[in-house]
């Protein structure tokens, strides 16, 4: 698996140094590729923070560089979900699929509920809003959660093309599931013509999956520039001053996220996952989630990490897009903590019934809300409304939402990947534990970043 789509082992015939016996000069591009991606991203992150603090608001001129990164990722999300899910579903039996779906749903619901409790608990302990007076001026619109019946109906797309165009993850997943199951039936058809057509179609879909992954590897080489721009713009716009009065809330949210990541580590240990290897694979989606603030947008990178971990397509093609939509542990921590913050600022005492309502609304709202930047803020307004609290203090939170969104998206994508790894472990033949030993190291980057992709059918 080459990070540079043009990687070849053949010498460049136009390289004059090849014939003189001198070691060939490495081009700048080649040298760039040879630096491990995580270092490039780390440098980009630090430089972005420094540039944002030094330049301030005018740094927004480089916003297009970040937007290009976001667009490159979202360009890949829908083809990735559609192709990997059709291919993944066609390779497992409907019973296995049902079991994986059930496990994913329970895992996601339980961890989200735990995260919500952690957020509320920590905030009650620390009282992040105590002593703060309200001077937020931004108007925040009230939101109400769509009825559950609507959320369920929307899962079935009326038109697959508009679902793809609108980026409706659950609707596209529904279509891909149906198509994958139908393809599996066609493959098993007793009629020679149908089974051979299905085999051809399957090859096209599998080829499409490989194509998307190759493009993802190319996009990742652009990611340091995107990361630099995105982080510089957020820091430039928010500034250190905006953060200070809300430092306690930021601390509670990030503290809750840290607790949740420890919980993931414990879960992984219980399922005998090598922690070092897990986090080595997870670091890229975590960092991508941090800067893009979108778990749906990070899906291409999370899927690649699942491949590195040796998880079968039959599992991750289903659990990752599902997780990006319904599993939002970081968001739950934030909604819980920020609701307590709102109550603190307004001097209200939350009753147990109000807290239960907040938790229920938060968990349910996360099912129907896509993993996009700022989704958590919408859920917060729903929770605050349902608890009967005033909306004013939400404006304060909105001012630093981007900073909080970064952390909660990291938590969300880590939760999705943890669930995926755990579910793969619990399914027979869905985890290639020795994936790392099957590497075909074509370059230093590849040796560092990509321990081979197992084929599990
Ligand atoms: N941005 C988060 C995500 O994509 C959702 C949120 O706003 O909390 O996972």
From TrEMBL:
Give TM regions. Answer: 37-56, 68-93, 105-126, 169-186, 207-232, 252-271
**Which organism encodes this protein?**
Nesterenkonia halobia
> Which terms are listed as keywords in the entry?
Cell membrane, Membrane, Symport, Transmembrane, Transmembrane helix, Transport
Biased composition, Low complexity: where in the chain?
9-22
What InterPro entries does the annotation carry? Answer: Na-dicarboxylate_symporter, Na-dicarboxylate_symporter_CS, Na:dicarbo_symporter_sf
Q: Which Pfam families match?
A: SDF
Q: What protein does this entry describe? A: Dicarboxylate/amino acid:cation symporter
Is Cytoplasm among this UniProt entry's keywords? no
Topology relative to the membrane, per the entry? Multi-pass membrane protein
Give the coiled coil ranges: none
Compartments where found: Cell membrane
**Which residue ranges are recorded for the region named Disordered?**
1-24, 432-457
Q: Does the keyword NAD apply?
A: no
